[in-house]
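Q: what sequence does this backbone want?
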């Protein structure tokens, strides 16, 4: 799988994935949370107040599609590509891993999981969250 190397801006994020922690960049000046990590806050422009906070690991699908023909060998179709809105306000594009890909729908609750990479890092993916409220 072709995954970018860590750099100065993404090192903390990738280190977090080694511990299976999803770290989101947070601005201490204005309270904005963003992903992916950047050199400045996309809300207020601050550059010196950026840190990281751990996501709680839940989300809601706000758009999704089932891929029936994979563009490469990294995924066996069918699989779900989804936009997942986290309660922290960030949207991640990821996979929802399930045995029933056609059952994933907008509004579904999902829970964070991890797809290991060969170098010890991991990619955040999601699983349907069937817990009763």
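A:
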């Amino acid at each position: 799988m072709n995954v970018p190397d860590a750099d100065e801006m993404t090192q903390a994020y990738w280190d977090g994935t080694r511990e299976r922690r999803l770290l989101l960049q947070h601005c201490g000046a204005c309270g904005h949370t963003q992903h992916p990590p950047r050199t400045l806050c996309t809300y207020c422009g601050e550059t010196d107040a950026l840190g990281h906070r751990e996501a709680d690991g839940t989300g809601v699908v706000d758009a999704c599609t089932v891929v029936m023909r994979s563009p490469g060998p990294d995924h066996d179709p069918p699989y779900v590509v989804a936009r997942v809105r986290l309660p922290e306000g960030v949207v991640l594009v990821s996979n929802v891993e399930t045995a029933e890909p056609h059952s994933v729908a907008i509004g579904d609750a999902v829970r964070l999981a991890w797809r290991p990479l060969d170098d010890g890092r991991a990619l955040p993916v999601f699983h349907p969250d069937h817990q009763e409220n």
